[in-house]
Structures are given as structure tokens and as C-alpha cells.
Amino acid sequence: QRVPRVTGMEMLWEALRFQNPADGSWQVWVVASVPAGRLHAARGADSWGYEARARLATRHADGIRFDSASNLAVTADRLPDEAGLPVRTFTVARPGPLPITLVVSDGARPGTGAWAQDTVAVPRILPMPTVSDIAVAQSDGGTWTRDGESFLRVSPDHVTDAAGQIHVYFEAYGVRRTADYEVEVRLT
Q: Which residue in 24, 48, 113, 117 is a FRET match for 17, CA 20 to 30 A apart?
């Protein structure tokens, strides 16, 4: 979802839902991206620094939970203005509506940022094969992981790399180990 500028910044964001089969709860990842050109770039002797911070408030049956994260990127060259700097955080939720408020700010300029409010529908698993949300990354080798084996730089930008490649991660639920399935995957 695209959020209009609020106090000088714009952002893209999305919620990604993945089930924890052990207890039926869900990890709800909230992933945001802000354009580097909207962040204050701190210039060092031979580097540039950018920082995006996220704060997530979620309303659960037992009260409001707060989670936060930041992404500090240090690069040799100044980032292009349109380059997205992702920041992500998550909460654990039960099936049902999950009201959220997301605030993303510039780590170098307090009070500069954007916010979004929405209600994320956390699904119930049906007794048939179901697919999680799809995490999209321009490249692998990032810090986001669900399985400890696939590490991606997940971002809501959904942009391919220079070679036109994209990496995706999703999970399938309700699949029996002893059953045969015919699977077709099409990404459009």
C-alpha cells in the first residue's frame, strides 16, 4: 500500500502473514520501505549513512503491543533518491482482525516520517492446502528469514534486480506428507 506524505516522507508497506503450526498463532511481519531521497544522508569521510526506524502498535485481546526496528545502511556512494530502504518488524497474533498502526521515521531527523493505520485479517487455516502470503525480495543474502536457510532482503517495493530476477518465499499449510500433489507455480 502506498501512503501519502506525512511530515515530509512517503512509504510503501505491506503485512506478511505466516503460521506457526505448533500453536496456531501467526507471525505478522510488517515491512515498509522509504525512498532514500526522503532520508537525511549523513556523509562520512568515505561513506554515506541512512537510517529508517519503524514502530508498530498492534491491538490484541489482551491489550496493545509495541514492536520496533531500525535499518542503518552505510554505503560507499550516495544512494539514488528512488532507492528503497526497507525496515521490518513483526508481532505474533491469533486468527481474526488485527488493528495496526505503523510509524516509520528518519533516524537522523526526529519528527520526520509517515504513518499508516489498517486492520490486517489474520486467517484461520482451512482443512485444505493453503498458501501463506508471499515475501518478495530483489536479492537474497538479506537478514529476513523464516526457516533459517533462506535469507532475503524483503521489501514491499516488489522490484526486480538489474537482471530482471526476483526472489520469493512462501509456505504451504495443510499438505499431508504422505499424499501426492500436482503443483503449478506461476508468478505474474
A: 113
What does the pLDDT look like over 39-57, one tens digit per residue?
999 998 899 999 999 999 9
Q: Which amino acid is at 24?
A: G
In whole angstroms, what is the distance from residue 72 CA to residue 76 CA? 14
Return d(Cα 28, Cα 93) in angstroms, integer: 7
pLDDT at 2: 53
Under 8 Å between Cβ of 83 and 77? no
Q: Which residues pair with 12 in a beta bridge?
A: 2, 33
Q: Which are the contacts of 145, defined by CB distance < 8 A and separation ≥ 6? A: 151, 152
C-alpha distance from residue 73 to each of 116, 125, 162 (Å): 23, 37, 20
Report whether 13 contacts 31 (CB < 8 A). yes
Given a contact cutoff of 8 angstroms between Cβ atoms, the answer to whether 106 and 51 are in contact is: yes
Q: For residue range 70-110, what is the model confidence (pLDDT) as tens digits? A: 999 999 999 999 888 999 999 999 999 999 999 999 999 88
Are 120 and 12 a contacting pair, CB within 8 Å?
A: no
Contacts of 10 (CB under 8 A, 6+ apart): 2, 3, 4, 34, 35, 38, 114
Measure the CA–CA gap between 124 and 142, rounded to whole angstroms. 29
Contact 155, 30 (CB under 8 A): no
